[in-house]
Amino acid sequence: MNTATVTAVRPGLDALVTGISGIVAQRQEPRETAYAVADLLRDRLPGLDLLTEQERAGSPVQYVSHLLHAQDDFSIVAVVWRPGQHTVIHDHVSWCTFGILSGIEHETLYRDMGDHLVEIGRADNRPGEVSGFAPPGDIHMVRNTSAEVGVSLHVYGANVGRLGSSVRRVYDLPVR
């Protein structure tokens, strides 16, 4: 059974849901699914009008996630980051694809060495850019390094509405 939840009618969301549903129905390997969804998102990345003005404002306390669509095999989430806001170091329960609508998402990637983490890469993701990944190897921290409110659209290969989050594990290990 495939139960779907859409939280609101939003410009461009229906086309994304239809396209992603078709990709997910092919039951490819997680990494291939993430890359195929990334290709779709590059062609159909919506504008900031996907969110209301109030949603785009974010929160002064921490970044905010808006669940836009959830069903058994994928979810679409908009994340709003005020300047300097960031995640903890974490990994994910499933594949993920993301596209940047505004701001700069600075991503730091890590490798788990058992008793510590090692930084293995950095990327500045700018408006219009899209990327995707799948576990393992998805340990990262994300920060808005721009002076403006950042908005990014994330597609996860799981029902984060049911799970409550896309995060599988938070890493408290020292970084060396």
Automatic annotation (TrEMBL):
UniProt crosslink position (3'-(S-cysteinyl)-tyrosine (Cys-Tyr)): C96-Y156
Binding site for Fe cation: H90, H92, H140
Keyword Methyltransferase attributed: no
Example GO molecular function: ferrous iron binding
Keywords: Dioxygenase, Iron, Metal-binding, Oxidoreductase, Thioether bond
UniProt cross-references to InterPro entries, sorted A to Z: CDO_1 (IPR010300), RmlC-like_jellyroll (IPR014710), RmlC_Cupin_sf (IPR011051)
Domain of life per record: Bacteria
Family per similarity comment: Belongs to the cysteine dioxygenase family.
Entry protein name: Cysteine dioxygenase
Species of origin: Nonomuraea zeae
